[in-house]
Amino acid sequence: MFFNVSGGPYGIEDAIPTLGPGVTLALLVLTPIFWSLPVALAMAELASAMPDEGGYVTWTRRAFGPYCAFLVGWWSWIDSFVDVAVYPALFVEYLRFWIPEMTGVERWLLVVVFIVALTGLNLCGVRPTGHAAVALAVVSIAPAGALTVAALMGPRVAPWTPMAPAGQGLEALGLGLAVLMWNYSGWDTPSTILGETRAPERAFPLAMFLVLPVLTAAYLLPIGAALASGALPWNEWTTGTLPV
User: Cα(first)–Cα(last) distance of the chain, in Å?
Assistant: First the structure.
């Protein structure tokens, strides 16, 4: 479930110069409360009442009929092409920090390897994919945890200053909020395998309420610690900044 919503604090760096450190940190706390928690509560309730294979598609069919269920399933499938395409690009973008001399061809080859490897893993079935997801979650979060500890051990500045860039308009706030909401969305996705989950009416809500605070901490602590370290000016943050 962690990977359905997030994979760590990666891809969120662009919000810092857009919103400002203070606003970004505030929204990292408020977004899960006012956005993720209501969605998670709704998903948990529906999963407990109707733990059927297909999840939100099944729920839509029961509420609005087969046509709306078809639309939801189709739109979700189309959306997955757009959403999932972000992650190979992010992976290569972060890898450039360690291998800056990569050529364009090498980056494309890495993207292909990334896609083929994860596709093959998913074809192996739910159980191997679940075990791999746990291992990948540890691998994903470990660098962020190490970064947090290292940043807190060094010189510190107030991570929330300035609150916002000078002259920030509502369009910047909307753009930054969209990034954060995207980073906190995806709670409905695991519902599609409820039929393959043991005791889903109990496991699904429990997993949701365990993941939400972990997810919030996985965003807030590394971002806050990195800002507090002062290693890089907040207005120079961009995708791939966090390894610094």
Answer: 28
d(CA 65, CA 44): 22
As a three-state string, the secondary structure of the chain is: CHHHHCCCCCCCCCHHHHHCHHHHHHHHHHHHHHHHHHHHHHHHHHHHHCCCCCCHHHHHHHHHCHHHHHHHHHHHHHHHHHHHCHHHHHHHHHHHHHCCCCCHHHHHHHHHHHHHHHHHHHHCCHHHHHHHHHHHHHHHHHHHHHHHHHHHHCCCCCCCCCCCCCCCCHHHHHHHHHHHHHHCCCCCHHHHHHHHCCCHHHHHHHHHHHHHHHHHHHHHHHHHHHHHHCCCCHHHCCCCCCCC
Confidence (pTM): 0.78
pLDDT at 243: 55
Question: pLDDT below 70 — which residues of the chain?
Answer: 155, 169-171, 242-244
What class has domain 2-236?
A: mainly alpha
pLDDT digits (tens, 9 = 90+) for 96-119: 777 888 888 888 898 888 888 888
